[in-house]
Amino acid sequence: MTKPVLIxxxxxxxxxxxxxxxxxxxxxxxxxxxxGYDPAREHYSQWVHLPYITAPDFDQALRQAVADFxxxxxxxxxxxxxxxxxxxxxxxxxxxxxxxxCPMDSEVAPYQSALQFGASVLSRxxxxxxxxxxxLSVSPLEIAALFRHADVxxxxxxxxxxxxxxxxxxxxPAGDIVEIGSWWGKSAFVLARLARCYGIGKLLCVDPWSNxxxxxxxxxxxxxxxxxxxxxxxxxxxxxxxPYANGAVNYLRLPSVDAAVxxxxxPIVTTAAFGETRYAGRIAVLHxxxxxxxxxxxxxxxxxxxxxxxxxxxxxxxxxWPYGDGPKKVSDExxxxxxxxxxxxxVMGSALFIQKK
Length: 357
Description:
It comes from Paraburkholderia haematera. InterPro entries: SAM-dependent_MTases_sf. This is Class I SAM-dependent methyltransferase. By secondary structure, this protein is α/β, with parallel strands linked by helices. It has two domains: about 5-100, Rossmann fold; about 110-355, 3-Layer(aba) Sandwich (Rossmann fold), CATH 3.40.50. About 40% of the residues lie in helices and about 20% in strands. The protein has helices at about 15-25, 60-70, 80-90, 105-125, 140-150, 160-170, 185-200, 230-245, 255-265, 295-305, 325-335, and strands spanning about 5, 30-35, 45-50, 75, 95-100, 175-180, 205, 250, 270, 275-280, 285-290, 310-315, 340-350, 350-355. The chain has a seven-stranded mixed sheet, with helices on both faces. It has a five-stranded parallel sheet with strand order 3-2-1-4-5, with helices on both faces.
């Protein structure tokens, strides 16, 4: 929109998020509120006070603001204000448009998507040639809740991969869940939640959270050029996992090979954030998603895969990866060298799933 957009009320979280997007896109905005003092005022270069929509002079005040600032659109995340404007703008200001859809629909839509995902997972059970009968699936509501909470955590864990993880945990023995490469914690949350739902075991996240270890030497340079802050990523990880940990999640801020030595040395991991966690010392599900260089992936596999128990799973993330073939080469070598020990293997989403006999 070439004309300015009025954000009303301007201090709500979605208003401030829209303000940031508008600025990034070069959209001129004016803040507005009915409060006598609104702390959000400091975020806006231009501001206009409007009466509450219940006030008899609201319509006239809005007309005056539109005329003064040549406003062409209004963004309103407040359900009541949006509904009033939706009904009244065609009559009082026919040339001014609401730039957002109904806030109620926007708020509820992610939950509807989560419920649809939960229903789709249960409607399409995977017929795995696994080594043991599957557990009964948790309810669609449980899967929907998992999907919804995972969806708000940044990261790359595609829907097909989450679907496959939901299935392999039904076919998993008891033991620890170990993730190599956690970053912000998206897939870590999924693993921790599924482990709890099916009573598998506790999650150990292994990540150096170090910019030095992020360098992908064998890809085309695009990944390594992306700016990253490892300390910040660890903080985001802690914020995402801490509410769900409950003694069943912890981490080692170490390179994968060093962490494997610590894991073999003893079953207890202690951190300031999560406290003390006692692990079983045997792995039910190993999720490999560290540095994607061939040499690094090969070291991860060598350091951890022999600890996976019979019937356990090895998940090689980014088996399908457009920036390099380190995970695929190592995975294919592992399949060739251990074919006699594998109960089943399949690719879903971008990941390769391998179950030991």
